[in-house]
Design goal:
Largest sheet: 10 strands, mixed
Number of domains: 2
CATH topology of the largest domain: Rossmann fold
CATH superfamily of the largest domain: Glycogen Phosphorylase B
Strand order of the largest sheet: 3-4-2-1-5-6-7-10-9-8
Radius of gyration: 23 Å
Strand content: 15-25%
Number of strands: 16
CATH class of the largest domain: Alpha Beta
Number of helices: 16
Length: 475
């Protein structure tokens, strides 16, 4: 029987029977692995000065985890460097924050080779591999060079950049060429898939077959499709019904003392548009002083990538912005903005979602954004909150009944806040029903099964001898 082998930068914590301790993607991967037995391979999160070529194996029921340690300089240059200071800002169109350093790209290739060296001996002939995200784009190429012929799929969880943006990356052709050693490429939305197709045709003079849903270049052909990720709805329903959620919902309603609660839940990341959100909220209060002492914004800011200076600088900026707004607009009895600079347990967060009158999910650019879907899933059907959603989030394609906004416009977002606060209950219910139907229909199980089904039926299209291989000089 075929095994599924999941490969990601980090591996979820699995219990004795293969149950994931965290939600979302980790639970979906663990569930898929349990169904047919499998292995999850990735970095342990630990560093060592004496790396071992072999992975450390642990059994969890019928799932094995295989972990490797990395050297400190590789963590700094591969993870903090090329992955999060080069590819992440580039894919989010932040060229001003993109670090174009040769040492970073060299470490990125070295770590992917290190992954392949440790993974290849563990594979069986009929294993199916599913590689996740931008940290591991070259992994299939590294595996093929070691003789691995298994089906390998790749899913990109973040946006694919526009062709002219990607062209600013030195040796961008080489990065994309590595993707043609996969059998199936998955993107979150049709827009990100289209951006990849445009690069193939414009920058590589390649070919896109929209009927077969394939792209061809470098003498190879690969299937490329979009698969919007969703929620584990069974998990969300359980979270909303949990005692912790009930308690946090009641506590939030008590603490707001009749005020309307606006909610933001984001990682502290420059892609999430947090300074713009704070500015828009300030604009709303300036435009509508009648709402002073009648509304409050709770922003849950989850710290991330503290090894990258840009993230630490952003956190300091947000603390200053929150203090300034509270000092300028707040009163002795009322603070307009609460900035919680720490993570919140998922069951507690589910209750906070339910207590909110509106959620501001306003990233500047996002692959999907599951917070928008979690907010909808947690609502009371008889009295739901309003979703204010950036039109530049991948979720906006599926969630047209939200109040779609331009996060770069303070006025646009301020107007949406007013509309959400004044929206009649009948309209809130109608919008929520449409949003909830989509969240249920496009769930995590469907995303996972559709990708694996397509990967299982892809032909061996990687080599197309009739096409002349492109020889591209480094750029």
């Amino acid at each position: 029987m075929q095994r599924l082998v999941v490969v990601s930068n980090r591996v979820a914590d699995l219990g004795q029977n293969g149950e994931a301790s965290s939600g979302g993607l980790a639970m979906a991967m663990a569930s898929a692995l349990r169904q047919q037995g499998g292995m999850w391979f990735g970095w342990s999160g630990e560093t060592t000065d004496q790396p071992n070529a072999a992975a450390k194996m642990t059994r969890h029921g019928n799932i094995y985890t295989a972990l490797i340690d990395l050297e400190p300089h590789h963590v700094e240059q591969y993870y903090n460097g090329f992955a999060n200071r080069t590819l992440w800002p580039l894919c989010h169109h932040r060229m001003d924050l993109t670090a174009y350093e040769r040492d970073f790209s060299s470490a990125y290739i070295e770590v992917n080779d290190r992954f392949a060296e440790a993974l290849a001996p563990l594979l069986r002939d009929d294993d199916v591999l599913w590689v996740h995200d931008y940290h591991l784009i070259p992994l299939a190429r590294a595996l093929r060079r070691r003789g691995v012929t298994n089906r390998i799929g790749f899913f990109l969880h973040i946006p694919w950049p526009a062709a002219e943006i990607l062209a600013t990356l030195p040796r961008h052709h080489e990065l994309v060429q590595a993707m043609f050693d996969y059998d199936l490429l998955g993107f979150q939305t049709q827009e990100w898939l289209q951006a990849f197709q445009n690069y193939v045709t414009d920058a590589l003079s390649g070919h896109v077959d929209r009927t077969q849903r394939t792209v061809s270049a470098f003498g190879k052909t690969v299937s490329a499709r979009h698969y919007p990720i969703g929620l584990d709805m069974a998990e969300m329903r359980a979270l909303v019904k949990s005692p912790e959620a009930q308690e946090s919902c009641a506590a939030m309603r008590d603490s707001t003392a009749g005020q309307k609660l606006l909610l933001g839940v984001d990682r502290i990341d420059y892609t999430k548009g947090l300074p713009q959100k704070f500015a828009a909220y300030g604009q709303f209060l300036a435009d509508h002083p009648e709402w002073i002492e009648r509304v409050m914004l709770l922003q849950v800011g989850q710290p991330s990538r503290t090894g990258v200076d840009d993230y630490n600088d952003l956190q300091e900026e947000l603390l200053a912005d929150a203090g300034r707004l509270n000092g300028e607009v707040g009163t002795l009895d009322w603070s307009p903005l609460r900035f919680r600079n720490q993570s919140m347990p998922r069951n507690v967060l589910a209750g906070v979602y339910r207590a909110a009158h509106a959620a501001l999910v306003t990233p500047l650019r996002d692959g999907m954004n599951l917070v928008a879907k979690e907010f909808v899933a947690a609502q009371d059907a008889d009295d739901p909150g309003v979703l204010i959603l950036s039109r530049f989030a991948g979720a906006a394609v599926q969630m047209r009944e939200a109040l779609l906004v331009n996060p770069h416009s303070r006025e646009d977002m301020a107007d949406a806040i007013l509309r959400a606060l004044e929206m009649p209950r009948s309209e809130r219910i109608a919008r929520w029903k449409a949003l909830y139907t989509n969240v249920v229909r496009e769930d995590l199980d469907g995303w996972c099964s559709s990708f694996l089904r397509d990967l299982a039926v892809t032909d061996d299209r990687r080599l197309t001898p009739q096409r002349q291989t492109l020889h591209v000089s480094p750029q």
